[in-house]
Amino acid sequence: MAIVVDTYMIGAAVLIAAGGYAGLVIVWSDLRKWVPEWRLIAQSRKENKPLICLTSPGSGESVFVLGNKDDKGDPTFDTKGQFGIQVDPQFSGEVIPERHKNGLNIYHFATTLPFAIDSRHAAAIQTSISTIRRKIPALSVLSDDQLGALLTTDQDDLEEYCQTFVDILSADRDVDIDPRNLRGLIVQALELLSQTPIRGGWTSYAYAFRNISTAYLSQTLQQYGMLIERRAVKNANDLQKTLLIYGALGMAGLFVLVGGGIAYSMIAG
Amino acid sequence: MTDSTAPDPYDPDSPDMYDDAPEGIDGDEYLPAQDMEIGPSYSANSTSYTPGQQQYDGPHYQYLRDLYTSDFLGPVVAKIQMSHLSPRAKRQLISSALEISSNSMLLSSQTKTDESETSFLIQLNLVEASCNKVDVNLPEYPHLLEQLRELTRLHATRTVGKNRERMQQNRQTIENIQQMGERDDEQNRKKGFGLFSVFGRGGD
User: Does position B54 have pLDDT exceeding 90, yes or no?
Assistant: First the structure.
């Protein structure tokens, strides 16, 4: 059968192709604009690497980073250009990632902490603070940071630290609490929390990260690594310098011997 | 010129430099360097700081002891104890302060100050691992760290360089402090009423 290619047919084909390209451009720009993480998500599924969700504890804003590693078996992820160091939860402890369909695993990190937490930890922190605030109103004199610091203090140090807190609190406002009473309230709070089940419902990773009481940042851990590296490099440089000096001395000695030999042979000859 | 009213650091009968220590500090916890043993003792199980009482007779040993101790260490430890840091942070900070002033740190034949600075930064890193958020938000925290940093810097520079404050390179050269002072005076003295210095060094 003969196909007649006339102007109308070419025009129709061009129109269909143009429409297809326009559609592709629209989908592509939509994808780029509204799902900027699509490539990371695709890569994560394709290469079987976890996705790191970095949350800023202050604003709650999060970004996705692919869980790459410099070497296989490295305990930390390679997150260059991001914040500090993120330790692989396979090394740091039992953290369950968010498991999505087709093998997409997401770990939640803070921009300020080297270790990941999961939704159970976030819910536990939230439950602890809300339970104490509701059931022990006498502790309302303490801020969330102060409460967290006292709850994580060893029992041996608790009395001394309660005295310090009373000193801090009574310095700028009239607080009617004595150290022994404060210690009793903290012990009561710890006992209460040991019997309180973790509540379900909504959880906020930003809130949880904000209320973890440690001051050790992922940036601090990164600095630690850099300091150890600096020391290793310096030791290597020192060794190199020593070898160079000995090498130069050896060469100088050799020149003297050879020169002396030639001079002797010339004089004697 | 020597001030006759100032306490003599080498005289055991001289009045304590820290008799006017702040209220609440025990005199024994607030001792200057001359009453400290090299490598002061500190119990890790308590927050009390107990410097030694060892004395040396020979000026050479006296000099070495002064070179490797600091009269500021006692006050800074007392200051850490009085601060509002958590007990855990206090313990680590005191431990770090003692470590950066220890003999092993100062006698480690350093030829540059980089090494002691790196050690100090590692110590600070460990201090931060023992701190909570309340600790690092206290105004005292950066103050104490900066004091320790300055103490370390001065300690480290004592043993480094030919014309530095002290001469102790690799435990081989020991120079008398008086000789150093005389040499400095000699250098500072203007020759020919300072007229030649105009040509020699471009004038003052």
Answer: no
Residue B155 near residue B116 (C-beta atoms within 8 A): yes
Mean pLDDT for chain B overall:
66
Angle in degrees, 0-180, between the axes of helices A179-194 and A144-151, rounded to the nearest 10: 80
User: Which candidate, B91, B70, B152, places its Cα nearest to that of B119?
Assistant: B152
Cβ B155 vs Cβ B70: under 8 Å: yes
Flag whether residue B107 sits within 8 Å of chain A, measured between CB atoms: no
Chain B residue nearest residue A154, CA to CA: B88
pLDDT tens-digit series, residues B135-190: 999 999 999 999 888 888 777 776 665 544 444 444 444 445 555 566 666 666 65
- Enumerate the domain spans of chain A: 1-34, 38-110, 119-217
> Quick check: A164 contacting B, CB < 8 Å?
yes
Within 8 A by CB and 6+ apart from B112, the residues are: B160
This prediction has a pTM of 0.67
The number of CA neighbours under 13 Å toward the Cβ of B111 is 4
Among B111, B133, B137, B145, most A C-beta atoms within 10 A, so best to mutate, is: B133
List chain A residues with CB under 8 Å of B128: 215-217, 220
Candidate from A161, A223, A228 with C-beta closest to B86:
A161
Q: In the beta sheet, which residues pair with residue A100?
A: A104
User: What residue has token string 């590692």?
Assistant: B122
Confidence of residue B49 (pLDDT cuts 50, 70, 90): very low
Report whether A227 contacts B121 (CB < 8 A): yes
A180-207 pLDDT, tens digit per residue, is: 999 999 999 999 999 999 988 888 999 9
Domain ranges within chain B, ordered by starting residue: 27-161
